[in-house]
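Many introductory courses stop at the sequence. We go one step further.
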Amino acid sequence: MKITVKILIILLCLFSILSCRKDEYRYNEPIDQLPLAKESLVATLIERTTLKDGSEDNILDHASCLTVKLPVTVTANGNNVVVNTTDDYNTVQAIFDASESDEDTLIITYPITLIFEDFTETIVNSDGELNNFRNLCESDNDEDTDIECIDFDYPISFTTYNTLNEKLSTEIITSDKELYDFINTIEDYSIVNINFPVTILDFSGSLITINTIEELQNTIENAINACDEHDGENNISEDEKEFSTLIIQCSWNIDEFEKNDQHLESQFDGYKFTFNEDGSAIATNASGTIYSGIWTINLTSSDLKFTIQFDDFSIISQTWELKEINHEDDGDIIDLSYEEDELKFKQVCN
């Protein structure tokens, strides 16, 4: 009997100890604090604020959702420039601004690495590949995904409670990339709190102290359209996006070619031109003879330049400016010009 009582007493003590130990890991959410849910509006706003802004190097890639990873070598109006830092963008711009009468051209030395808004990277090897990624960016008329008029002042601290193992952890965030990754890896079984106060920097350079999650949400929402982000100045137009997609889809006939006030399109009767994504070009005549060439697209702040180079066809080998794209029932027509000369390619998809 005494042994049984002793055993019961021991079991009760063990149960009491274990219960107390479990309570030590119990998470008590602050009364005045709401958790940061992954799919919540405030989490989405934080993510949009941390997206990488690609407008800084638009003079190189003309796409505000992309950034060319430095260093990169380019040829600006015939001048070789090694772009090592963001300050070197001004070097390229100065070359373009040196003359108002010349045609600004930029040739990128491939391969290059592109950094996307979510900080992932990919290697591209040609203008065609770069143009495909340009087409993924929003047009000038779309609302930007990224919020540029406000920035977080790091570091920022988060407390995470894992409901599966009942453990607390603290995460110190020191950059936009770290914060973007953190927001996108919040698990359903985690309770995440921001350790306020948090400091943010608005577009005027003023620091703002935020003390609650509601205040953070309101501040970011108010900043969405609070400044001019200047993204549209170098973004490609809808015609330019369409051109870079169309040109590689099918073959093309020369529908009209006027040079020095003479119509010369008959010289290319029976020829089909194919422009490949890797920058190579092929002209095939009616008898099957193949002529090789190259092509590139260069975007300036105001237009698209289409350069064609065939050793056998010097008469059309030059840099043309895109005038417009016309959609006809029997095939699209690309209208190009050079000074007073005009060249029209008609689509042939069979």
